[in-house]
């Protein structure tokens, strides 16, 4: 879809050009015909004036009383001419000098109009009138040069065109400004939608024109429903976890206590099942808790939440004195849900801390997606078993609890974010290395 | 060591209480957050095990209120919601350790010991003070001559408390407070009997009597 602004602009420019063009033609044509009509009627008056000063003597000779004739007809090539013809006699105006008007005779009481080239490249409007005087038929032909009028008209046309074009430009600029102003709220809405997508805001601004009000409030409504649903399902899952874990804890406690009363096989089987239930609930619940790309509010802050998380791990592993090399880009624009990111980094770092001998290396980069690399100097993992790691939460070493489940949860989360995750041996520290890439959020607006 | 157990699951508490007592802790139990906060401020506890899902007042709020009042009671947080954001939140509020449910009692005991040592600036592992080695798991003490002595429950509690507070004057009532829980019969004269027994095991010079004040476990 083309943008509203360009659509409206081009539509308006086209209609303005049409209106001004038509106006220009209509006005030019009307002025030309008005001027001609005016000249023609003046010429008819001149013809009648000539007729009234024309006499036939008894011999039938035609004579004109020159004293009564307008001076313009006497001045050579003045642009005003006449020719009177009756039978074979003709009288032409002195202004014609040696030139002739070629004209056919005109019937009595008729009037003709024609155009001719006159002397000095004049273009003449020729009006012929047929009269009858003293029982003689005569034609009075009067002509006037149209060039001065035409010049005036073309001058007018040029002026009209210039002012029309400047008006057009002015209007187009003006309407662009008006459009931009009125579309400003749409532009703002668009940038807000982008911010929403990036998770910088969680509601749209409701201060919008009335036309957009329903859209904005509907979007906000949907957003809050989504957020509420997420919260509710998270709460429900959390409660479920609580509910399942309690009896599980008691069961575990009971088997621990009555160790001597129960045979070793049953104890083993029981412990195995209990652990399995725990592992399954843990993983399913955590997976369900992932916010993914839904907006739930809080965003992970690399400058605040990451140090908090590392502080937590330091406390948890306070007996180990792990040296950390933390290399995090100063400005990370990539936004991830806080709880999701804490879950992801928490599980991976917990794993690294658990296995590391002395050092854990953390690198987080933000270039076209979020790249996380965590390495440790622990024993690493058997390459043959690496493949299985993320699939079912296979534990590589049963003595340290929850190795596999952490990575499996991380893997679930990365999948949810459509990212990639790979395990391997750390070249730098010799232990376990995990690489994660979360793709950048692409702008949809 | 006097331990405050704030947990609302009766069955879990019933089992846990016995195990903790067997491990030499004087345990007081509360099943709601408001009481937990009040008791925690009593300054008679050496450590608290705090469940986050307490009725009345959320465990995190209890912890926050303790810390805002300057209460440095070592706290192990217990929770069924093993979420990392909750863990981070707990540590930010001032938790010292964290245990997700379900857990083995052994793990809790190991963490409790480690936390107590840490809070008294003692290294982790076996508690060793002035050549005396206290095995907290087996409740035995090895003296400098290499002999290992089994301790009775009260002897163990008393010795552990003294070893974790060496060089400090400990009054009879203070010792009673940290060795017995709320429900026990407290008779501070009994302390004298146990002190005598400890002296018999460790040598008279180890525990000094300060008349009218109490006892001091002497560092070399």
Summarize the structure.
The complex is a heterodimer of chains A (445) and B (220). Chain A has 445 residues and is α+β, with helices and mostly antiparallel strands.
What does this structure look like?
With 445 residues, chain A is of the alpha+beta class. Helices cover 51% and strands 18% of the residues of chain A. In chain A, strand 3 and strand 4 form a beta hairpin. The longest helix of chain A has 52 residues, at 147-198. The two termini of chain A are 13 Å apart. The model of chain A is unreliable at 392-403 (pLDDT under 50). Chain B is α/β, with parallel strands linked by helices. Chain B has two domains: 2-119, Response regulator (Rossmann fold), CATH 3.40.50; 127-217, Orthogonal Bundle (Arc Repressor Mutant, subunit A), CATH 1.10.10.10. In chain B, the strands form three sheets. Chain B has a five-stranded parallel sheet with strand order 2-1-3-4-5, with helices on both faces. A four-stranded antiparallel sheet of chain B has the order 6-7-8-9, covered by helices on one side. In chain B, strand 4, helix 4 (84-93) and strand 5 form a beta-alpha-beta unit. Chain B starts with a strand and ends with a strand. The chains are: A alpha+beta (445), B alpha/beta (220). Chain A binds chain B through residues 238, 241-242, 245-246, 248-254, 256-257, 274, 278, 282, 286, 289, 305, 308-309, 311-312, 315-316, 318-319, 338-339, 342-343, 345-347, and chain B through 9, 11-12, 15-16, 18-19, 53, 80-85, 87-88, 91-92, 96-98, 101-106, 114, 118, 124.
